[in-house]
(S)-3-amino-2-methylpropionate transaminase
Amino acid sequence: MTDTQTPVEPLPAPPAAAVPAVPQERRIVTAIPGPRSQELHARRTAVVSSGVSSVLPVYIERANGAVLVDVDGNHFLDFGAGIGVTTAGHTPARVVEAAVAQARDVLHTLFTITPYEEYVRVAELLAEHTPGDFAKKSVLVNSGAEAVENGVKIARKYTGRRAVAVLDHAYHGRTNLTMAMNYKAMPYATGFGPLAGDVYHAPSSYPYRDGLSGAEAAARTIGWLEKVVGATDLACLVVEPIQGEGGFMVPAEGFLPALQEWCTANGVVMIADEIQSGMARTGRYYASEHFGWVPDLVLSAKGIAAGLPLAAVTGRAEIMDASQPGGLGGTFGGNPVACAAAIAVFEAIDEEDLLAEGRRIEATLTAGLERLRAEHDVIGDIRGHGAMIAIELVQPGTAETTKAPNADAVGRIVSFAAERGVLFLSAGTWGNVLRFLPSLRMTDALIEDALGVLDEALAALA
Ligand SMILES: Cc1ncc(COP(=O)(O)O)c(CNCCCC(=O)O)c1O
């Protein structure tokens, strides 16, 4: 029998990648930051650009589930999840094992040179789980901003138009085009211009502050687009179903479907930027499902691969096929290890019912925050879905009047909580939003513990 006919024995299964368990609790054993973090920070300052900042300069040595452990042995309850990335938890065993196994087989070939199944499987899962019962295709890239860039490229090619529209308070990335799409210049764009042109910022739906119904807000947005841009020049409208960095605004009911209806009627591609709100973050696979919105294209990133760099543009096959062959790609887009991790994330969402975990977290968090609102008059608004919840802080006594933003309170709460082992993040155009982005492994007991720290922080503001 020739060599080509010798049966190929399957490769031995690799040993499971043991993931060291971490006690799921907060525990502070040094000053924050501790001595070893301070040493590392001195080294970092010497060799890392000062343009790269850190919210909490504690250097993390281990992470698992809902907890971060720093180099000094301090344990933090992580309500940031790396800005909505470790949705399936830090170092989820099945994801780590899948990534390690894949790394042993193939680290890289470049899909546009010699393809591999894992990329195809991720595209199949995206076609299955993104909103819409129509033929869908994807392109895989490395980051959210790269997904935004490619969504815009595809929409421009499909429509033959150039203009791009976004909403007030939007955030879309740090590349030249996406900087032009963001809600504010500092720190994202200041001094980095000239920025891309043909980008237009239309009014959004901000129910706490505008008091408009979905229909009223949509009419305002559409009227603005028709006057300032003109539908015949508009390639795409890019919208976050729940706005992330801008402050977790949940649009009024009917707003998003009304915009989609106008886009469809006018040949404009409507793109859902689900980079922060997608992949089971909000108790649904994609946040647009909460609003009855079926977008033309959907952008996925962050939680899709549990921390490995992966992003995607997914949508109507006829739009996704508008590009000329070779028009889409890039060296690392759809890296096989990141794809293996993503496949495991999809499995975890379905087999561990992580969508239900998101709905549980929403119920526990919002009930606790409502209790705190009754005690502290700086909580102006509570909003969000699933494990994407936020409170907007206002000056004392202004919650129902001027709603004066209170960014100082948010800054003080973030510092107070960090010193006690809870990592909160801020957000918002005016920096006055405290957001809760825990992994779906955050238990009710840990949420209640963190809410107790928040209660102390709010009391200390007085
Ligand atoms: C909706 C939405 N679209 C696009 C992006 C951009 O995704 P990248 O993976 O950071 O490029 C984001 C990233 N948001 C966090 C940015 C953190 C920082 O850069 O300091 C997002 O939330």
